[in-house]
Amino acid sequence: MNWIPLDNLEQLSNIANAQGYSVIFKHSTRCSVSMMAKKRFEFEWDAIPEGTPVYFLDLISYREVSNKIAEQFQVHHESPQMLLIKNGECIYETSHGEISAEDLAEQIA
């Protein structure tokens, strides 16, 4: 699997209008906790069902997109943070040390 860079508001509309599941991983490039969560997530990457789009947001570079995510999907901003979107709604959200690709896969199953 590969990260899909999330760097514009139009992509959020596409995610919200998509059928099925999408994942958003919000990452702070200035935070060691965020770096650890990202590495753990990537280590477990194979647990995520094939074909699931996984978006990567550098929230330092794209603060406007990060703010819109909180508003649009009605979640409190965290960093790092992982959201599972299904048919336009956030159905699962976790942050910091609780981020796990294996837990995410269980939510999708």
* CATH architecture assignment: 3-Layer(aba) Sandwich
Oligomeric state:
single chain
**Total helical segments:** 4
Q: What integer value in Å does the Rg equal?
A: 12 Å
Describe the model.
There is one protein chain. The protein contains four helices and five strands, in the order βαβαβαββα. It has one domain: Glutaredoxin, CATH 3.40.30. By secondary structure, the chain is an alpha/beta fold. The protein has a five-stranded mixed sheet with strand order 1-3-2-4-5, sandwiched between helices.
Question: Can you describe this structure in just a few lines?
Answer:
With 109 residues, this protein is α/β, with parallel strands linked by helices. The protein is 36% helix and 25% strand.
List the helices and strands and how they pair.
Layout lengths: L3 E2 L3 H9 L3 E7 L4 H12 L10 E5 L4 H10 L8 E6 L2 E7 L5 H8 L1
Parallel strand pairs: 1-3, 2-3
Antiparallel strand pairs: 2-4, 4-5
Q: Could you name the key traits of this structure?
A:
109 residues; alpha/beta; Glutaredoxin; 5-stranded mixed sheet; globular
